[in-house]
Amino acid sequence: MHFLAVSLRKDWARTVRDPAQFAISLGIPLVLGILMSVVFGRAPAAPHGLLLVADEDHSIASTRFLDGFHRDPLDKMIAVENVTRAVGRARIERGDASAFLLLPKGLQLAFLTNAPCRLELYTNPAESILPQMIRETMLITIDAASYFRRGGTPLIEVENVAVRPSRPARSFASIFLPSMLFMSLLFLATSSAVDIWKERMQGTLRRTAVSPVSMLSYLSARVIFIILTYAMVSLVGLEAAQRLAGMPVPNLPAAALWMTFVGTVFYLLFLWITMLATTQRAASVLTNLVIFPLAMIGGCFFPFEWMPNWMVSVGRLTPNGWALLVFKAILDNAAHAGQVARSAAALAAFAALAFVFILRRARGFAV
Amino acid sequence: MIEVEHLRKTYGELTAVDDISFTAQPGEIFGLLGPNGAGKTTSIGCISGLLAPTAGHIRIMGHDVVREGTAARRVLGVVPQEVSLYEDLSATENLNYWGGTQGMRNPLLRKRVEEVLALTGLADRAREQVKQFSGGMRRRLNFACGIIHLPKVLLLDEPTVGVDPQSRVRLLDLVRAQAQTGACVLYTTHYMEEAETLCDRLAIVDHGKIIAAGTLTELRALLAERDLLRLSGIFKPDAAKTAIASLDHVEVLQADENLLLLSLPDASRRLPAIFSALAAAGAEVRGTNLTQPSLESLFIKLTGKELRE
Fold first, then answer.
1. What value of ipTM does the predicted structure carry?
2. What is the Cα–Cα distance from B215 to B203, expressed in whole angstroms?
3. Which of A43, A237, A347, B270 lies in the 20 to 30 Å Cα band around A272?
């Protein structure tokens, strides 16, 4: 405990003496995020619309009903995603799409025999224009189909159901700032990790290795300092995002706790990578090689909401992408204890593995 | 007390330290003298527990460095060859931290910080960041951090390299003061003068081996009061060797086309005879340098090369 106090005092003094490093890591993404939020305003963002479709008929007719959405100009405004009925309902209720269209079984037969049939269109009330466009497109398609079939008044109806989403519409800030906060964490973790090379080059790591302090104590004290620093950074970052850019943070302690935890995992990951390098320059190049693809694909550069689906699928598998999804769920008050616990356990296991490697490597690295 | 028995350290094919043994007593300054790359720093690395020995045993105040590393490091102070300080911290903050790593607490630590700052002449710069210090000041602070906890055993790895003469004198005084308080000091250097003026006992190291050890008097006795005569010019090595062999008690240590190194008693009186013999052998002597018995001449006698090579 005595060494912990001594080490924390030393690390704090070093951080205070070099605030630029800290400010750059934290500041650039956060300032960027806040400025963009100010420019775009606090109103709901206007990303592309998303139409979820559950096609239970799997027929030529059911496919033709969606043709309009695959043609210019609608295909540039509305993306169509095939889902099951259950998934579609769940997602539209979460507000994840502009609308959910259910094409029931028997649609083609009803169309050919001019029998009555009802399509269910669930629309997101948080959006006004896109759901209306989807509804009008469907009505025009049905009218056109009936005209070509020379069947007179169409018996196929579109029942519009406005669902009550479980969360309000996302603002620009709520989409963009979580990503920027995570990018800050990544930068901060990198600069904190590369400090081990500074300690090595100035000989202080070697001196520590010949003191009675064990490498376990030294590294543990360092990790505790990182936890305390990141907790402070998280609280300040979340407060700033909330007050300056209007990012909703309904549960500040939980969000800050998750950011701190994830930041510490990132730190250990980058410390591990850094210690694999043979020179300080190589360490810097190696961390940059890792951080930028991770940030880009893991939703920390461009939010998942703005990324193509295939990239989102890959990004969700990265440690930062995975952690970011939980973070967003916490910000949306939609995080389930099981989901958080699973993610935390996996990240903790990853961090523990990195810590063991770092510990085994530390004494040799000091020489 | 430091006990080193058959210490050996290898890196693959390279043997950095080859079966060295010595004992250094409390209150004694024991020197390891040798050229760069002789294995001095590797030896210090093994003794301090930084490097794992390939073979052999090292005990610090009775604690085995490998098996009881923490206990050994508690009584150990190390002043590394390179300055090892937090450059963005002040002198006081560095001392507080390194004292803290040794388990020192206030008010003892505070008192000791003031003491070592005064000892090293840094009291008036105590609050300045190390990055603003001169090289000599950094060296002194580096030393201060090694003695902050009053170690019983002090390892100093070439602490005066690159230090201005004023700081060097002060550092050597500090080393003597440590030994006078009863600390066992192991001092590595490649400066002959330092070893001669500072160390109570010495081990001369070359290629990882101790090639001679003892007090300064014992080591000088190995030279049998012989002088070292260095002649520069143009020589035919074989002819020069033959010519010198005709003279009594003159030993050729090195002979090449531009340099002739001779070991002989009472060299100043015998110079005319040597010049005559060499002239007869077709040599042209252009410079003469006579060195009386010293560690340097002993090193040359033992290794056939100069320490600075």
1. 0.78
2. 9
3. A237
| Three-state SS annotation for B227-249 | EEEEEEEECCHHHHHHHHHCCCC
Residue bearing tokens 């620009």: A172
- Partner residue facing B84 (CB), from A6, A203, A214: A203
Residue A106 pLDDT: 87
- What burial letters (b/e) apply to A274-286, b meaning 16+ CB within 10 Å? bbebeeeeebeeb
Out of B86, B103, B129, the one facing A204 most closely (by C-beta) is: B86
Q: Does A202 touch chain B (CB under 8 A)?
A: yes
- DSSP label at residue B75: T
Is the domain spanning B227-292 CATH 3.30.70.250? The answer is yes
The domains found in chain A, sorted by start residue, are: 2-40+170-366 (no CATH), 49-162 (3.40.1710.10)
What are the structural domain ranges in chain B? 2-220, 227-292
List, for residues B126-141, the tens digit of each pLDDT value. Answer: 999 999 998 889 999 9
Place of tokens 């930068």: A187
| Burial class of A20 by CB neighbour count within 10 A (0 to 12, 13 to 18, 19+) | exposed
First CA to last CA across chain A, in angstroms? 26
- Cβ pair B96:A9 closer than 8 A: yes
Looking up tokens 């505790």 gives A224
Q: Residue A2 corresponds to which tokens in the numbers above?
A: 């005595």
Distance CA(B263)–CA(A242), nearest Å, equals 85
CB contact (8 A) between residue B70 and residue A210? no
* Range with the poorest average pLDDT among A247-251, A345-349, B86-90: A247-251
C-alpha A184/C-alpha A234 separation (Å) is: 10
Which residue stretches of chain A are H helix? Answer: 2-17, 19-40, 60-64, 74-77, 85-93, 107-113, 129-149, 172-201, 204-209, 215-245, 252-276, 280-297, 309-315, 319-331, 337-366
Buried/exposed A173-188: b ≥16 CB within 10 Å, e otherwise: bbbbbbbbbbbbbbbb
Q: In the CATH scheme, what architecture does the domain B2-220 have?
A: 3-Layer(aba) Sandwich (3.40)
Q: How far apart are CA A240 and CA A219, in angstroms?
A: 31
For residue A115, count other CB atoms closer than 10 A to its CB: 11
DSSP conformation class of B133: S
Q: In which element (H, E) is residue A160 found?
A: strand A156-162
**CA-CA distance, A11 to B305, in Å (whole number)?**
48
Taking CA–CA distances from A208, the nearest residue in chain B reads B101
Q: Is the preceding omega at residue A116 within 30 degrees of 0, hence cis? A: no
Q: In what order do the strands lie in the sheet with A99-103?
A: A78-82, A49-55, A99-103, A117-123, A156-162
Smallest Cα–Cα separation from A319: which of A289, A293, A338, A281? A293
Q: Model's pTM, two decimal places?
A: 0.71
